[in-house]
Each structure stands twice: as structure tokens, then as C-alpha cells.
Predict the 3D structure of the following.
Amino acid sequence: MASTEELKHQLDEFRTNFEALRAEIGKVIVGHESIVEGTLTALIAGGHVLLEGVPGLGKTLLVRTLADALHLKFQRIQFTPDLMPADVIGTNVVAETPEGRKFEFQQGPVFANLLLADEINRATPKTQSALLESMQERSVTVAGKTYHLHRPFFVLATQNPLEMEGTYPLPEAQLDRFFFKLLVTFPSAEEIETILDRTTEAVDPKAEPVFDGQRILDMGRLARQIPIADELRRYGVSIILATHPESEYATEMTRQYVRYGSSPRGAQALILAAKIRAILDHRYHVSREDLRAVAAPALRHRLILNFEGQAENIQADDIIEDVIKSIEAPAMAV
């Protein structure tokens, strides 16, 4: 166990590395500060990110820039209806060897550190499910043999919220494997001007490597050492339980519009993200504000609305906000 002074030095270095990585990405990516911070948070925590936004907002560029800044192996898969699982994880092929013909495993694009699953909801459920094992166990199994993936392994998937024709919505099990779901919004007028300056002039900005993947793994282990009080852990559990309509913690809005609430993976994402946020805020412990700040990206994709919720176009973020307010009310009244 590290001493207090040693831990303080490590956390200072954590913040320095995080800011250096964010600044390097900022050389290419205009705006989207919360998206960049959320993506880096999930990467350090060892999770994956689902980016939702219309085309042309820089989702693909973000993960490519992240790969450049981290000096990691990057692969991109364009998901289409005719994409097969073997196109993602790889397959056994017949190879000629001095001993004769034999089967050899040919690795698919999933064998990378950073994997961009572009328009993931365009592939069939069979192909989408090819990512399930790799996202959770960091391995793939082909013909009864298991192959381990490189570390760190980070999936950043994108989907278009507008176009539904020819798409296959991600099943709950797939969504639950994403640490965060981040909503990419349209840039402001000033940001569009900056984008035009960077993309229509002779200068082509490019991110340079800041450090390697081992540093990311070390930062993730360090973040887990940040303490959280039992009371705050129970507060996080209360937020999760309040998303379940049958729970005693459920709000009126949850009971009316939610069919099924967040899984325990949501609680894990909530706590880990709060710990990283505490470090970035120069604190050595988790606060309620940390948990509240990361609740929406950690839980919005884990709430399954019922028919009434879908019919009335209720947003998961509104339910999460209502949950946090209802849990805060008794504490404020004391």
C-alpha cells in the first residue's frame, strides 16, 4: 500500500497525464470537452463507450485521434447488414506449411487496442453478438479455442439516433457492456468556425503520442485506490435501485415509465467514474456531486422503458434526473 505522500504524488501525475492527453486530443478535436473527458474516463476505467450522434460530428475522428495520442494499435470496422462474425473476430483458414496443410487462425480487426465499431446498429444481431465476449472477457473463442486480446482493449461504438431504417437496435446485454453512453451534440457557431479553420486550410493538425497503453492501465489501477465512504456507496446503490419500478426506492416517474432498471454494471460504472472525477477535481475521496455528475452517461443506456414511456417519448436522462432529485430531497430536509 502506497504512503500518503506517495499516493499524492501519483494522483498529481494522474492529473498531469490526463490533461496532457486531453490537450493533445484538443489539437484535432474542436469542442466536445465533455465527450472527450467521458471517453478518457471510460478508457482509464477499463470500459467501453457508445457515442450517439448524427453523422459528421467527429465521432470517428475522436477515436482515431485518441489512438494517435496513445501510440496504440487502432482498427476500424464499418458495420453493415452483410458483415459476418468472422469479419470481426477472425476465422481459421487453411495454410500451406512444410508439414503440409493445416488450419491457422487469422486474427480479425478486434485484435487491437482501440476498436472503432462504426454504426454498430447496422449489423445483424448475430454479428453484434460477436463483440460480447471480447468486450467483457477481453478474449474471443473460435472453434473451441480461446484467444486473448491486447491490453488495453477499448471499444468505441457509434450509432445514428435519427435513421432507423435498416438498423438493428442493440440488445440490452450489448448495451450493458458499455461503460458510458455519450450524446454528441451539434457544435456552436464559434466551434464550426474553428473546424473550418482547421480543415480548409493548408495546416493539417495531428495528435502526437503522449504515452503508451501501459500508462493507461496504471492510471486505471490507481483510480481504484480512491476511497469512497460507506454512506456514499449506499447513496450510489440507492440511485441504481431507484431505477427499478418494483423497488421501494423507485420514484413515481420510474414506476410509470420504466420496465427494467440498471444492472449492477451500472453501479460499477457509477463508482469508478466518480473516483476518476474526484481525482481530476483535486480530491482524494468521492463526493455526492461526483456520483450525480456521472449518473446520466453511466445509466442512460441501461434503462429499459415500457410501452407508455416509449409512446410518450420519455428520455432516460429525465428519469435519472428525477431519481437524483427524489433521493436528495430527504437529505435536504434534514
User: Anything to note?
Assistant: The mean pLDDT is 85. Residues 227-334 form a domain with the Helicase, Ruva Protein; domain 3 fold (CATH 1.10.8.80). DSSP finds 15 helices and eleven strands in the chain.
